[in-house]
Design a protein that fits this description.
By secondary structure, the chain is α/β, with parallel strands linked by helices. It has one domain: Rossmann fold (3-Layer(aba) Sandwich), CATH 3.40.50. The protein has a seven-stranded mixed β-sheet with strand order 3-2-1-4-5-7-6. Helix 2 links the parallel strand 1 and strand 2.
Length: about 270
């Protein structure tokens, strides 16, 4: 596995989370299994036209984009990513290579603009959110979903707390991530003038063999070499955490999946 040079410019595409890693697709699949039920529930409650134009920004491995094309068979579903290697072969979607940090879409292009597990990792997140709201047609929806690691930082377990803090520090240093930003999403949408703002959360636990547990374990394993290289953890720390997670008596909330949505006001 490629490790991170601490002197490199921070960024997702050069980090341990980038798509070139051998285990990245499998890791993204664990994220999908954990997050898809919440995402689907949010879309099921939105009032959309019969033939909606939907943008899935930073679509990753494409499970939600594929689901959207089936959920709304008359929709135009556009799935974008800076690296689209995992989006090929998904029926019913249009795939575009797109850098959300530097590229835009024309105003009022979509009935829904959706981004999941994306903006927390981009330093331009505030600007992207502002621009994304302009891509939504009047009466349409901006749906932003992200992961908060707040629960793992509050744990009283010293091993888990050390590993969690090291993970947050690694994300900040090598990518520029803000893993508490998701908690601010409803306010972020209101600040941009959206109406009918709502949000849902889903607790993700570790130590219980749940989809969230699998996602957490896959991400921690992929981060392991970088955590060691930057001396944020030792091998003993990683082994202690693996033993703790395997302990039948241990389970703990590790993260929160946050979904927030808001409607662009209708004209007149």
């Amino acid at each position: 596995m490629t490790t991170i040079d601490s002197a490199e410019e921070p960024g997702y595409t050069s980090s341990y989370l980038a798509d070139q890693h051998a285990g990245q697709l499998a890791r993204l699949r664990t994220l999908e299994r954990a997050f898809d039920p919440l995402s689907q529930a949010v879309f099921d409650q939105l009032d959309l036209p019969r033939k909606p134009a939907i943008l899935d920004l930073g679509a990753g491995a494409g499970s939600l984009a594929g689901w959207l094309s089936k959920r709304y068979p008359d929709a135009t579903v556009t799935a974008t990513d800076i690296d689209t290697r995992f989006l090929t072969g998904i029926p019913g979607i249009r795939v575009i290579t797109h850098n959300a940090g530097t590229e835009s879409f024309p105003a009022a292009s979509f009935d829904v603009v959706h981004a999941r597990a994306l903006l927390c990792h981009l330093s331009e997140r505030e600007d992207i959110l502002t621009r994304a709201a302009t891509w939504v047609r009047p009466g349409g929806w901006l749906v932003i979903e992200d992961v908060s690691l707040q629960p793992s930082l509050r744990t009283a377990n010293p091993v888990f707390r050390k590993v969690a803090q090291a993970g947050v520090t690694l994300l900040e240093r090598t990518i520029g991530s803000d893993m508490l930003w998701a908690d601010t999403l409803p306010g972020q949408l209101r600040d941009r003038g959206l109406s009918n703002v709502g949000h849902r959360t889903l607790e993700g636990r570790i130590g219980d063999n749940s989809p969230a547990d699998t996602f957490w374990a896959a991400t921690t394993a992929q981060a392991g070499p970088a955590l060691l290289k930057l001396e944020l953890l030792t091998q003993d720390d990683l082994e202690a955490m693996a033993s703790l997670r395997a302990d039948p008596g241990f389970t703990h909330t590790a993260l929160t999946f946050v979904s927030a949505w808001g409607q662009v006001p209708r004209l007149g």
